[in-house]
Design a protein that fits this description.
- The structure is a single chain.
- The chain has helices at 5-19, 26-38, 69-82, 84-101, 128-150; strands at residues 45-47, 53-55.
- The chain is mostly helical and 151 residues long.
- Helix 1 packs antiparallel against helix 2 (26-38), helix 1 (5-19) crosses helix 4 and helix 1 (5-19) packs parallel to helix 5 (128-150).
- The longest helix has 23 residues, at 128-150.
Length: 151
């Protein structure tokens, strides 16, 4: 298992709010970043908390193609060609999801199928560090939102 769903959403929100002053269609930007920040988990079990998980479409697991930068770059390239306004927020949400999962115990195989090398760390899903990342991401997102509102 990788990080909790709420951790991915909080990190996505922090990333979206950080870049928000530099985009024109702010609502669409935030929605796309948030969607892309959970997209890789749609094929596997989504962790709601340490003990609760749901399966949507997935039978594949974290070792699958959606948990690779290869998939991220292919999808981003397609968006850049066919829907350029979607490419940046999609890439940000998706790539930060993968970066966060790379620090989990299970990790990811970032450039599969070109290599099977895995990137992994020591973070336990639903553990103290996971909750710290969630909390700090929300604090950062709140600070970014305050900064945007007072400008």
């Amino acid at each position: 298992m990788c990080m909790l769903l709420k951790t991915h959403l909080a990190v996505g929100l922090a990333v979206a709010f950080y870049f928000l002053p530099h985009v024109q269609n702010r609502l669409a930007f935030v929605v796309i970043v948030l969607f892309a920040s959970v997209l890789p988990d749609l094929e596997s079990e989504i962790l709601l908390d340490k003990h609760k998980k749901i399966k949507l479409f997935g039978m594949i697991g974290k070792n699958s193609f959606l948990h690779t930068y290869t998939a991220c770059l292919i999808a981003t390239g397609l968006f850049a060609f066919f829907a350029p306004i979607v490419a940046l927020p999609f890439f940000l949400g998706y790539s930060f999801h993968l970066a966060v999962d790379a620090f989990s115990r299970e990790g990811i195989a970032p450039f599969w199928p070109f290599t099977t090398k895995r990137a992994s760390g020591k973070i336990t899903p639903g553990g103290h560090v996971d909750y710290a990342v969630f909390s700090l991401s929300l604090i950062f997102a709140a600070l970014m939102l305050i900064k945007i509102l007072i400008q």
